[in-house]
Amino acid sequence: MSKMIQVRNVPERTHRELVRRARARGQTLTRYLEEILERETSRPPLEEVFARIRARPRVNVSGAEVIRQVRAEWDRDLARTLRLDRRRRAR
């Protein structure tokens, strides 16, 4: 069930800008504000994200090592692709 929210004491400049943005999207001010609220509440708060990150086990691999591993994997994939391509052309 929908609930009503009333926002008081919105500065005139802020109100004008919200109305302008709603019109630019072909929406009513109410619908535009609903979308803003829905978007904001669909994401977890930053504090929660940071808490989740802190709760994860630490990784003892340097960023440079990860990059080396990824590049080596790319090189293997590229070499495999080139070998397959040469075989197809040789047929």
Task: Explain what the structure shows.
The chain folds into 2 domains: 9-56; 59-91. Helices cover 71% and strands 0% of the residues. The chain has 4 helices and no strands. It is elongated and about 70 Å long. The termini are far apart.
Strand content: under 5%
Number of individual domains = 2
Q: Shape from CA axes?
A: elongated
Given as residue ranges, the uncertain stretches (5+ residues, pLDDT < 50) are none
The total of helices stands at 4
The largest sheet is: none
Number of extended strands: 0
Element string (H = helix, E = strand): HHHH
Rg, please?
26 Å
User: Which class of secondary structure composition applies to the elements?
Assistant: mainly alpha
What's the overall average pLDDT, rounded? Answer: 94
State the share of residues found in helices, binned by percent: over 70%
Cα(first) to Cα(last) distance is 67 Å
Blueprint of the fold:
Blueprint: H1 12-24, H2 29-42, H3 46-55, H4 63-90
Helix pairs in contact: 1-2
Give structural attributes.
91 residues; mainly alpha; 71% helix; 0% strand; elongated
Short synopsis of the structure:
With 91 residues, the chain is mainly alpha-helical. 71% of the residues lie in helices and 0% in strands.
